[in-house]
Write a structure and sequence with these properties.
The structure is a homodimer. Helix content of chain A is 38%, strand content 16%. Chain A is of the alpha/beta class. In chain A, the strands form 2 sheets. In chain A, strands 5-4-1-7-6-8 form a 6-stranded parallel sheet, sandwiched between helices.
């Protein structure tokens, strides 16, 4: 079983027009993705933001649930918040996960040109010994090409069964589904 | 294929001590569950709240994305918001889905006494002809016994692969995973 971490990237990501932007941190992303990551056994959740004030905000949220009144009120929130690591760049997340070479697995709502990795094969690959893996989710309208260009693997998009193909999941929902597909316990039924 | 809807219940639900309470609406629940439900082909998302002012809040959020400035800014949000129906009780949701008898399928993070329905079998049941199904999610610390007692089926809990069994998913994450398990397109990989 490889060490698997998740990163939520706020820069460089795309806006609706395809321009490269920096998005703001959404408080509930921190909670939801930390809880989903921890439930499915991931050890690290990197929140990546280049702006110091935004990183401070994320660290304050973390502290509230680690040692503040949140920790006393709802102690179940403390273990997932322990996985949260706030860094200024994707490179910093890779360094923190090292010293081995870390594989970058990107996610996207759209099929790209490169062949994507199916979840069944991905599950198998993660069970085998190997280098750590960082699964990267974008905010806004998705990862900038300079990030997707660094991908060792591109996970299959989560496809809608609808005839019109509508798929606009929140990043919170997409992350939960991805972790379940990669690590979820499947019953016999 | 049966008509499948989802309900998010704010009353009667349990608090941490197991008392029956009414929870407040979380704005992002409306967005996330509407987007996940619509992506996976569900036609109706009932938000159930007994308090008029809370229903009004949910309807205002809906209007913002249906006809307000939200609809102009991010038109992709409009189709999911169309599925949102704000009602005062679970009974009202069942009536709105009728006139046929509606099956109630409940969800829970914990295994109960009754035998649970696995997702593989649930997928098959939903593809067959039959009565409409309402999948019910609780807020707070889960559905009150008077609701779970009405269940025609109880969906298997989403189980953690962790040794300590920690599973505290947000209701937004649990709903996304449930829809994916019931309706998600599985690649060959």
């Amino acid at each position: 079983m490889r060490r698997v971490a998740v990163a939520l990237l706020h820069h460089p990501v795309l806006d609706r027009q395809g321009e490269i932007v920096t998005t703001a941190i959404t408080n509930l992303d921190l909670h939801d993705i930390a809880r989903s990551a921890h439930t499915f056994g991931l050890l690290d959740f990197f929140v990546v933001h280049p702006v110091g004030a935004q990183r401070e905000l994320a660290n304050r949220v973390r502290e509230h649930w680690m040692t503040g009144s949140g920790a006393r009120r709802i102690p179940d929130r403390t273990p997932p918040m322990r996985t949260l690591r706030v860094v200024d760049s994707l490179g910093a997340a890779l360094l923190a996960l090292g010293p081995e070479r870390v594989e970058i697995w990107t996610t996207s709502a759209k099929s790209g040109g490169a062949p994507a990795l199916g979840y069944g094969e991905a599950r198998r690959l993660l069970q085998e010994p190997g280098n750590p893996v960082l699964i990267v989710f974008g905010t806004g309208w998705g990862l900038a090409p300079e990030v997707s260009g660094k991908a060792d693997r591109i996970l299959e998009p989560i496809v809608s069964p609808r005839a019109d193909g509508y798929n606009h999941l929140s990043v919170r929902a997409a992350a939960a589904i991805t972790f379940d597909r990669l690590f979820g316990v499947r019953g016999a039924g």
